[in-house]
Write a structure and sequence with these properties.
The protein is an alpha/beta fold. It is 31% helix and 20% strand. Keywords: Hydrolase.
Length: 638
């Protein structure tokens, strides 16, 4: 699916359905319960030929003075349309809608190919069950109103398909908000103040957890140390993640409980920072964090559920109707519980750990119906490297601001290729976190080997088709040759545009101008015909997709003062497509959601402004008025 071609008026990919919505004719669908299958269009209801048209024609023919051009126009106006040639069906035979949303400015997501609009617009949506029954003019759709139909007037507001966040960490986001939330702290002193406040309410011996700090935003851009935390931690073990999750700081008590000492060695894919005396400073990079994570007591069921409920509420408030989530298996079980209670407010595709055995993975995959469009397991998530912010993304050339550092690669390539092939042959979709060009190449090589083996063995993809839809998450620092390889292998670039708002402060210093010019290269991917799927990486970035839209179309800082390689900007239509149809394609669900057309799931969001017409600097202030999932309003602004 080429989103660039799609948004520039080219033909849609064959896997998509094109609907003509220009006229006021209604489209109806068979609304029987279906299992992840394509809805078939029902034929539009015919209209009867107008007798008055024939009267006009007779009068026209009798007027000898009528010019030929006028006569022809009259004839054409009088001829019946194709939809008028058969007898009408009884009005009462049409199924009535459960809900009609009317008087709206609806961005359908379907290319218009007209001089007036790049995307077709409509003004009303009829919903029956959890799917869209019809779209069209308010007057026409009101014919679907029955005695029990609810009618909701949207007051002319902008409506678009619900956002499908292709990459986030729901449970971590909720847990951060319930712990020491360090998002936005401006200094080490402020970080210590928030930690000290949490200590005051903690029970003796409790672990104090939190995250979201970013030393690059501080006036003094130095990493915190265990000794900085010891002074205010009151004897509690403390572990605080950096904003990217690939670096953390632990206090002395936490290091002791994790068994990290002067004699500890760096694990594969990780690094323990040390001072000149060889003592651990408390900074743990990537897999070096694992020892502390194992020492932290597991959350209780109620703690997990509360954290997830907090995060789900944020999704709803921001118009996110689907989430491709990287959380723990215990969190998936909370989602199952919420679904049974009718309280799951976003569609969840839960990723599974790439490193688990095929037997373990298959057991989890088959534990919940894959046909459940509200909740199911999705791709396998693996990590090739770390992050640019933590200097752990794997690069083929050293960091420009750290000439001896090439980052951290997490796998031996031979082992990685074998594991990837084994899992693709078992029918799993795979997505690899890869940020540096070395990490990206590791992922591409593993995908090439796995796809070759799968095709030779005639193994089908995760959805039973021939398109494996392998993904690279982040893909921040590719080379030109690697982008071409994405296209060749049909690898999806799953990217998070709001990262550039945070990273532009230091990205060029990390990479140098040549590498930085192609970093976060959304336009480069689209121009090559690579499918983009957008997300936020929440809780690394805020969950607001409007920050992502702003970043994608401007590549400017939030205050508008800094611009980062503007050649990689994309259009608003392209950005919306990446957040909707692109994300749906990335999880094999492009026939179920991503557009406002008959037969698709009734997932959409009502906004206080038309984001396609709003000034770029106004996008960050976008407010959600209503979020609808499966026809049900799950959030409404007060």
């Amino acid at each position: 699916m080429n989103l660039n071609n799609h948004m520039n008026g080219g033909s849609l990919a064959s896997s998509e359905t094109t609907f003509s919505l220009r006229s006021s004719r209604l489209f109806f669908v068979n609304l029987a319960v279906r299992k992840r299958s394509t809805a078939k269009d029902a034929k539009s209801a015919p209209r009867t030929q107008s007798r008055a048209a024939h009267v006009r024609l007779s009068r026209c023919l009798s007027m000898k003075a009528m010019a030929c051009g006028v006569l022809s126009a009259c004839l054409l106006a009088s001829l019946p349309s194709r939809a008028q040639t058969s007898a009408p069906k009884p009005e009462e035979a049409k199924p009535k809608a459960d809900i009609i949303f009317m008087h709206a400015n609806i961005y359908t997501g379907v290319p218009a190919n007209t001089p007036f609009s790049s995307i077709l617009r409509e003004e009303a949506i009829a919903v029956r069950g959890d799917r869209i029954q019809a779209v069209g003019k308010t007057f026409d759709l009101m014919k679907l109103k029955g005695p029990d139909t609810q009618v909701i007037d949207l007051g002319g507001h902008f409506v678009m398909p619900g956002f499908n966040d292709a990459h986030l960490h729901l449970a971590d986001a909720g847990q951060q908000k319930l712990g020491v939330d360090l998002d936005g702290v401006k200094s080490l002193d402020e970080m210590r103040e928030r930690l000290a406040a949490k200590v005051q309410t903690a029970k003796p011996g409790d672990w104090i957890l939190g995250g979201g700090w970013d030393e690059t935003a501080w006036l003094v851009k130095a990493l915190p140390s265990r000794w900085d935390l010891d002074e205010v931690s009151g004897g509690h073990p403390v572990f605080l993640d950096r904003v990217d999750g690939h670096l953390a700081v632990a206090n002395t008590r936490a290091l002791q409980l994790a068994g990290i000492t002067l004699a500890s060695r760096d694990p594969q894919g990780g690094h323990i920072d040390r001072n000149d005396a060889g003592e651990p400073t408390g900074i743990l990079r990537d897999t070096a964090q694992d020892a502390v994570q194992l020492a932290i007591p597991k959350l209780t069921h109620d703690q997990r559920r509360h954290a997830i409920e907090v995060a789900l509420a944020e999704l709803a408030e921001n118009g996110v109707t689907s989430a491709q989530d990287n959380s723990a298996w215990e969190d998936f079980q909370i989602y199952e519980e919420l679904e049974k209670e009718g309280k799951l407010t976003a569609r969840i595709s839960e990723w599974l750990p790439f490193d688990e055995t095929v037997e373990q993975l298959d057991k989890k995959r088959t534990s919940h119906p894959q046909s459940d469009l509200m909740l199911h397991t999705g791709m396998l998530k693996g990590f090739m490297d770390g992050s640019l912010g933590g200097h752990t993304a794997a690069l083929s050339e050293p960091y420009a601001d750290d000439p001896k550092n090439y980052g951290l690669a997490r796998y031996d390539p031979e082992k990685l290729n074998a594991m990837t092939t084994e899992r693709v042959l078992a029918g799993f979709q795979i997505g690899f976190h890869a940020i540096g060009d070395k990490g990206i190449q590791m992922a591409l090589d593993a995908f090439a080997a796995a796809e070759k083996a799968a095709k030779e063995a005639k193994v089908k993809a995760a959805n039973g088709g021939d398109d494996y839809r392998l993904r690279i998450e982040h893909a921040q620092c590719p080379t030109v040759a690697q982008i071409a390889q994405f296209k060749q292998l049909k690898v999806i670039a799953s990217m998070q545009p709001s990262h550039v708002l945070t990273d532009m402060r230091w990205a060029e210093a990390r990479l140098g101008p040549a590498r930085a010019s192609l970093s976060y290269g959304w336009a480069a991917f689209l121009n090559k015909g690579v499918t983009l799927a957008f997300g936020t990486d929440y809780n690394v970035e805020p969950v607001s997709p409007y920050r992502g839209l702003y970043a994608a179309v401007t590549r400017k800082s939030v205050d508008g003062k800094q611009e980062f390689f503007p050649a990689q900007r994309i259009t608003m239509d392209q950005a919306i497509a990446a957040y909707t149809t692109g994300s749906a394609f990335a999880e094999f669900e492009e026939k179920e959601k991503g557009k406002i057309v008959p037969g698709m799931l009734a997932d959409f969001v009502v906004l206080d402004r038309d984001v396609t017409a709003s000034a770029a600097e106004k996008l960050l202030g976008t407010k959600v008025l209503r979020t609808v999932v499966g026809g049900k309003t799950i959030y409404e602004a007060k």
